[in-house]
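All the exercises in this workshop are built on plain-text protein records. Sequence and backbone structure share a record, each on its own labelled line. The question running through the whole workshop is how a given chain folds. The record below serves as our worked example for the rest of this section.
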Amino acid sequence: MAKKAAGKSGGTPAIVALEKAGVPFTLHAYTHDPASASYGEEAADALGVAPGRVFKTLVAEVDGTLTVAVVPVSGSLDLKALAAAVGGKRAAMADPAAAERTTGYVRGGISPLGQRKRLPTAVDASALAHPTIHVSAGRRGLEVELEPGVLVELTGARVAEIARG
């Protein structure tokens, strides 16, 4: 897969991290609708990609530590499974303001890549069933397509079954 932009990249920290790592990826831009109820479903629809191949980046708090969960937009995060995947006992969704402050991204545009502070990360095992997946490229309306193994490697993620549905 060659690096190419389907629109302007915007030079987000996620894109910078991918370019620095020298890994193959493809950017996909679409027009974000502020009225959209789900950022991930909007991306899947706009790009014509199955929702099981588009992954959302969620930030949870596991035993007091902010933790990133990457799950398909077709499902939801299993907080208990996330806690177990990262060696914790209890997980809850993080305060959105804390997630934005810590990652450096806005809600709906949080990427698992290029975050201001590297957080423990877990990627749902279903990602490995696809040759490529889509994740946020660091802003609403911009997705990056890459091999799931590359995402796991660059984020130091643990792979586990952390999604429901």
